[in-house]
Amino acid sequence: MILIKSDGFPTYNFANVVDDHLMGITHVVRxxxxxxxxxxxxxxxxxxxxxxxxxxxxxxxxDADHHKLSKRSGHSSFEDLIxxxxxxxxxxxxxxxxxxxxxxxxxxxxxxxxxENFDYHHMSKSPAVFDIQKLKWMNGEYIKAxxxxxxxxxxxxxxxQVVSKDIxxxxxxxxxxxxxxxxPDINEMVDFFEVLPEYDLSLYQNKKWKVSPEKALxxxxxxxxxxxxxxxxxxxxxxxxxxxxxxxxxxxAGFVIWPVRIAVSGKxxxxxxxxxxxxVLGKEESLSRIRRGIELLK
Length: 298
Prior knowledge:
Blueprint: H1 12-22, E1 27-31, H2 38-48, E2 54-58, E3 61-62, H3 78-83, H4 88-96, H5 111-117, E4 128-129, H6 132-145, H7 148-160, H8 169-176, H9 185-190, H10 213-228, H11 235-249, H12 253-265, H13 274-281, H14 283-297
């Protein structure tokens, strides 16, 4: 076993053992690719008469193709994940569960709870696969549970990337809080608040509510004068108008809400209902978009 190289410097193994001993290291935690080095270290510890530390060899973390994670292969670092919109607590929580699982199969842990529950004796010997989709799910759970003011500190700058209008961004942030997994998801969900996108009239077709473009046109034309006369553009007041119209027409509320939502958003999937969107857009913009919908349908 070589201890000193020809240039007079110690080998890594020799220097590492001496350094760990002088620093009072009691536990050596490392990847299991270093397991084969343990006997060499032990020979040195025994030769010096020093106490051998406790070794904890962690399973490798691999990608979906079972290749070891590395920056060279284009895998994300912790800093990369934070820049991609992940919450640091979620990343720590997820990584702690790679190769280790608690006895009750629980998945969401605070850092303090991890300290209290983590036991390296329950670590797997097999490589752990880093599943980015599972991390996104966990990140979404952390965002849902986040204090609203703290959440807004991250969400509102993200919204401002696509919405420059002077509208209530906190209301928009609330709409998407339970719908996103990472913060950049917000952009595509809320960009319609800035400008009504070009959309296909087929969006007005809805089998569940039995809406067709022709029926959608009648709903929008009937509602337009009522909405023009409405001063209170709050969510509750607007919903009452749509609900009362549905009752008069003998149809379900969804039959009325669907075409209005398409007209004001230009999207089949939105983070909130038609009247919530109209409340944020305001009366002038909402009516403009509904008139545009009528023109397109005609």
